[in-house]
Specification:
The structure holds two protein chains of two kinds.
Chain A: H1 2-35, E1 37-41, E2 44-47, H2 50-57, H3 59-93, H4 97-107, H5 114-125, H6 130-138, H7 151-175, H8 179-187, H9 192-220, H10 224-230, H11 237-247, H12 251-276, H13 280-284
Antiparallel strand pairs in A: 1-2
Helix pairs in contact in A: 1-12, 2-12, 3-7, 3-9, 5-10, 7-9, 7-10, 8-9, 9-12, 11-12
Chain B: E1 5-14, E2 17-27, E3 32-36, H1 43-51, E4 58-63, E5 66-67, E6 78-81, H2 93-103, H3 108-121, H4 137-149, E7 155-159, H5 167-184, E8 187-192, H6 195-201, E9 204-209, E10 212-217, H7 219-224, H8 229-234, E11 239-249, E12 252-257, E13 262-267, E14 276-281, E15 287-289, E16 300-310, E17 317-321, E18 327-331, E19 346-351, E20 356-360
Parallel strand pairs in B: 3-8, 3-9, 6-7, 7-8, 13-20
Antiparallel strand pairs in B: 1-2, 1-4, 4-5, 9-10, 11-12, 11-14, 12-13, 14-20, 15-19, 16-17, 16-19, 17-18
Helix pairs in contact in B: 2-3, 2-4
The chains are: A mainly alpha, B alpha+beta.
InterPro entries (chain B): AAA+_ATPase, ABC_SmlMolc_Importer, ABC_transporter-like_ATP-bd, ABC_transporter-like_CS, Mo/tungstate-bd_C_term_dom, P-loop_NTPase, Transp-assoc_OB_typ2
Protein name (chain B): Spermidine/putrescine transport system ATP-binding protein
GO biological process, one term (chain B): quaternary ammonium group transport
Chain lengths: 285, 363
């Protein structure tokens, strides 16, 4: 009996261990090794920190690195600001069928591939696009307006892509807040703002933190949206990784960039948890 | 003296259903007022209107003489203890109690002082730093009351706060609530569907049914002198029959139930010969005896057979059947003389005409 249980346990664990080791741990160790070598001549490599030195001294790389980090945090913040009222409405104000319909409406855009969704934004925002034409027709612009290929366009795309991942955890936590607790907040003299600050937000904190972590990581690692909507003026760090690996075949520098991104996201997520005084276990569990 | 709380022709309609139908009452200062009724009778709607969470369709609510209809809930001098207490789980006990004071911009040191005082008052000094979920049900109850009482409201509303407690604790909290009310000397308005809570604690009770007040009075009024058949049936237990009046002598009636039982009873409202009436006799007013001689003073006497004994300690009953086949519930005295009573025994029962209350049949 005991042996059987053991075999079952091993069998169940095998796919997980295989997945983790083959797809995550081994490639990452390999990447780390690649990032730590330097090409001396054809086929001859030496172990050194030269790649990291290059990444940290070249202003373009460094600037893109920080820009990506700050823009991702900004995108997370904007997503939270937009998603919170939406989630509050769905969880607390909408009743019955309306609640389900609204929730479904948030989900429907995700039935379409991300590529097609981003093209949708391009159709709206490009020089010959809908909004540009509309502005000319109304008379607010006398020539075609280009709204693509800048930071704002990219930000719109990032927020749009991330919305659902913020709304879902927020709706879940807000739904678990008893209506009478909110009423008690008002009954004891609180106004809308203080009830929000002292009761609703503290209660929704697990949802806010987990939603923010997911959205932040999605934004940081996003490749499609910055490439298509941001263009050449709004470089994203993932684009630099792609360039090193695919365009320039410089795997050493590409791997280094990859590791810098991993480190960055770990540090920021850790900081976010520290700032809100939560543990990863509480947030994810 | 101006009443602390006064409702005048208060009504609330949701679409076509009338939840509260022209209810008027006033609660004198410092009293414990209960609204008692079955679930769905509209009592919670009244409470939510007083607290300000619902807008009345018509009528007025006055607190200490001033109308509060245009005052939002957070400005009304009324606080509410919610059914599931609604303590703030994200705060400590002290933060919970201090919440309202912080909202009123009371200085920090005064808040700390008042919170300590309130904890002292509810008999839980020194628990301020604890989390809500570390407290027992009864302690949470007291904290919920303290959280309202530090604001010194004119009226404290309590919405079935004992519903979630187990029986023993509920019995204990009844006494405690009454004592707290006396200690704080504040007007309590208490809603419940549990008659024993209302009867034990209240100075005045309003019995509510289908959006209307059936009767407002003291516990004794409702129990001994019900105004309507609903009150007679709702408060306490009762044997009830329908019957026809055969003779009227002032308040005293001679009647016969539909099953053929002849009875002498007392009329509550005007009745005349030939009317159909509802008759209520409480099990505890019926005297049980082994021989008919012990019942000589009673107007109504019957010889019955015991069909079943419902043992429930002090509240034990016997079910007896008379010769026309009518089953009556009679309280079983615990004085020892009926300890050997068993199914099939013959007993004699009797009750006075004054204990048989008679109402014109409600249509």
């Amino acid at each position: 009996m005991r042996n059987h249980a053991r075999i079952g346990f091993v069998l169940l664990l095998t796919p997980l261990v295989l997945w983790l080791s083959l797809l995550i741990i081994i490639p990452h160790i390999d990447m780390l090794l690649i990032s730590l070598r330097e090409r001396i001549s054809f086929g001859v490599y030496d172990t050194s920190l030269a790649q990291y030195e290059k990444a940290l001294t070249e202003p373009l790389y460094l600037r893109t690195f920080w820009r990506t980090a700050i823009m991702s945090i900004l995108a997370t913040g904007i997503t939270l600001l937009i998603a919170f009222p939406v989630a509050y409405y769905i969880a607390k104000m909408a009743k019955g069928r309306l609640q389900q319909v609204l929730f479904l409406l948030c989900l429907i855009p995700f039935y379409v591939s991300e590529l097609v969704r981003t093209f949708g934004w391009m159709i709206l925002l490009r020089e010959t696009g809908l909004i540009s034409n509309l502005l000319q027709w109304v008379g607010l612009a006398d020539q075609p307006v280009e709204m693509l290929y800048n930071d704002s366009a990219m930000m719109v795309g990032l927020v749009y892509t991330s919305m659902l991942f913020m709304v879902v955890p927020l709706v879940t936590t807000l739904e678990s807040l008893d209506d009478s607790v909110i009423e008690a907040g008002y009954d004891l003299g609180g106004n809308g703002l203080s009830v929000l600050r002292e009761i609703i937000i503290p209660h929704a904190m697990p949802g806010i933190v987990s939603g923010s972590i997911v959205v932040f990581m999605l934004s940081l690692g996003n490749y499609l949206t910055p490439t298509m909507l941001g263009g050449k003026d709004s470089l994203w760090f993932t684009e630099m990784i792609y360039n090193q690996f695919i365009v320039r075949s410089n795997w050493e520098l590409g791997a280094t960039f990859g590791f810098m991104l991993l480190l960055l996201s770990s540090v920021i997520v850790w900081g976010m948890l520290r700032l809100t005084g939560r543990t990863l276990q509480e947030t994810m569990g | 003296m101006t009443p602390d709380l006064e409702c005048a022709e208060l009504a609330k309609r949701f679409g076509t259903t009338t939840a509260v139908d022209n209810v008027s009452f006033s609660v004198p200062p410092g009293s414990f007022f209960s609204i008692l009724g079955p679930s769905g009778c509209g009592k919670t709607t009244i409470m939510r209107m007083i607290a300000g969470f619902l807008e009345p369709t018509s009528g007025d609510i006055r607190i200490k003489g001033g109308s509060v209809l245009n005052t939002p809930p957070n400005k009304r001098p009324v606080n509410m203890v919610f059914q599931h207490l609604a303590l703030f789980p994200m705060m400590t006990i002290a933060e919970n109690i201090g919440y309202g004071l912080r909202r009123n911009k009371v200085p920090k040191d005064q808040i700390a002082h008042k919170v300590d005082e309130a904890l002292e008052r509810i008999g839980l000094p020194g628990i301020g730093h604890r989390k809500v979920d570390e407290l027992s049900g009864g302690q949470k109850q007291r904290v919920a009351i303290a959280r309202c009482m530090v604001l010194e409201p004119d009226v404290l509303l309590l919405d079935e706060p004992l519903g979630a407690l187990d029986l023993k604790l509920r019995e204990h909290m009844k006494v405690e609530l009454k004592a707290l009310q006396a200690a704080f000397d504040t007007t309590f308005v208490y809603i419940t569907h549990d008659q024993s809570e209302a009867l034990v604690m209240s100075d005045q009770i309003a019995v509510m049914n289908q959006g209307r007040f059936e009767q407002v009075g003291t516990a004794q009024d409702l129990y001994y002198r019900p105004d309507t058949p609903f009150v007679a049936g709702f408060i306490g237990e009762a044997n009830r029959w329908k019957g026809r009046i055969e003779r009227v002598e002032g308040d005293a009636l001679q009647l016969r139930t539909d099953s053929g039982l002849a009875m002498r009873a007392t009329a509550v409202n005007e009745l005349s010969t030939g009317d159909t009436a509802e008759i209520f006799v409480r099990p505890e007013t019926i005297r049980l005896a082994a021989a008919p001689t012990a019942l000589a003073t009673f107007d109504n006497q019957l010889r019955c057979t015991v069909t079943s004994i419902l043992f429930n300690g002090a509240a034990s009953r016997v079910l007896v059947q008379d010769n026309v086949g009518e089953t009556l519930e009679v309280t079983l005295p615990q004085s020892g003389e009926f300890a050997a009573l068993k199914r099939g025994d013959t007993v004699h029962i009797g009750w006075g005409a004054a204990q048989a209350t008679c109402f014109r049949e409600s249509v």
